[in-house]
Design goal:
CATH topology: Rhopdopsin 7-helix transmembrane proteins
Domain G-protein coupled receptors family 1 profile: 41-287
CATH superfamily: Rhodopsin 7-helix transmembrane proteins
Strand order of the largest sheet: 2-1-3
Number of strands: 3
CATH class: Mainly Alpha
Largest sheet: 3 strands, mixed
Number of domains: 1
Order of helices and strands: EHHEHHHEHHHHH
Pfam family, one: 7tm_4
Oligomer: single chain
Structural class: mainly alpha
Shape: globular
Low-confidence stretches: 1-7
Mean pLDDT: 85
Protein name: G-protein coupled receptors family 1 profile domain-containing protein
Number of helices: 10
Strand content: under 5%
Main location: membrane
InterPro entries: GPCR_Rhodpsn, GPCR_Rhodpsn_7TM, Olfact_rcpt, Olfactory_Receptors
């Protein structure tokens, strides 16, 4: 059934980050740089993991997938936001809004499930090192990745399915720079109390529970590491610290946005910018700066590129 049959609103106005031209231009410069670093950093990790045979392990396979998802996640909102900041034409069609909402929650859902898989991978590697290759074999790894994508799709289609039937008869102004459930539901011309409870349960409480489970698992890992040799403990601690930092950066803003009633608060846009723009940029740095294997692989990739350029020039 066509949703426009139930709605007088055919497009929404995105209020964005600011209505002041000077601020919009400043934000355009800043977030253009942020997006460029996000794309470069994440695609570099994907290229390094793909090209270096020494990194063809489960841990780096999962890391490469996370970087690819971070690239996709930021690309769902950032390009349109940058265009709107520069041109000042912040309108989006009803269908375009639902499409953006679908992919935003699709990729975001995959990331949450993938982080859970990465935590499980580290748990097996540290608690059962001799059985690690048997437990986390390529078949199991592929199955877990497929399950993450299916889980993300189911999560996202539920969001769209609950939203698409709502009647929108005005107002048409979304108080954000992209389409998301909390802002969209507030514009519906009907009582959305029950729907908000469903959304908070589906998004906020599930995210909170996953976050607490992940923190608990990493706490157990840190306690377990006390009995390991110093060299092994140092490497494992570095990996766990990176994972905990990324998990915190992703989950805490999501919990703030989705685990509370859908009301507007002063910090909402700042938190939205944090987890849609800043966090995908920081993840490559968090995973690479303390990872000697990644740094060595990047150096080798850079050397191969220089050698290739030299051969082409001669």
């Amino acid at each position: 059934m066509n949703p426009t049959n139930h709605s007088q609103v055919t497009e929404f106005v995105l209020l964005g980050l600011s209505q002041i031209w000077e601020l919009r231009f400043f934000f355009f410069i800043v977030f253009s740089a942020v997006y460029l670093m996000t794309v470069t950093g994440n695609l570099l990790i994907v290229a390094v993991v793909t090209s270096d045979p020494h990194l063809h392990t489960t841990m780096y396979f999962l890391l490469g997938n996370l970087s690819f998802l971070d690239f996709c996640y930021s690309s769902i909102t950032a390009p349109r936001m940058l265009v709107d900041l520069l041109l000042g034409n912040p309108t989006i069609s009803f269908g375009g809004c639902l499409t953006q909402l679908f992919f935003f929650h699709f990729i975001g859902g995959i990331k949450i499930f993938l982080l859970t898989v990465m935590a499980y991978d580290r748990y097996v590697a540290i608690s059962q090192p001799l059985r690690y290759m048997l437990v986390m074999n390529p078949t199991v790894c592929g199955f877990l990745m497929a399950a993450s994508w299916i889980g993300g799709f189911i999560h996202s289609i539920v969001q769209v399915g609950l939203t698409i039937w709502l009647p929108f008869c005005g107002p048409d102004k979304l108080d954000n720079f992209y389409c998301d459930v909390p802002q969209l539901i507030k514009l519906a011309c009907t009582d959305t109390f029950v729907l908000e409870l469903l959304m908070v349960s589906n998004n906020g409480l599930v995210t909170l529970m996953c976050f607490l489970v992940l923190l608990g698992s990493y706490t157990a890992l840190l306690i377990m590491l006390r009995s390991h040799l110093r060299e092994d403990r140092s490497k494992a601690l570095s990996t766990c610290a990176s994972h905990i930092a990324v998990v915190t950066l992703i989950f805490v803003p999501c919990i703030y946005i989705y685990a509370k009633p859908f009301r507007t608060f002063p910090m909402d846009k700042a938190v939205s910018v944090l987890y849609t723009m800043v966090t995908p940029m920081l993840n490559p740095a968090i995973y690479t700066l303390r990872n000697k294997e990644m740094i060595m692989a990047m150096k080798k990739l850079w050397k191969r590129q220089k050698d290739l350029i030299s051969c082409l020039e001669h």
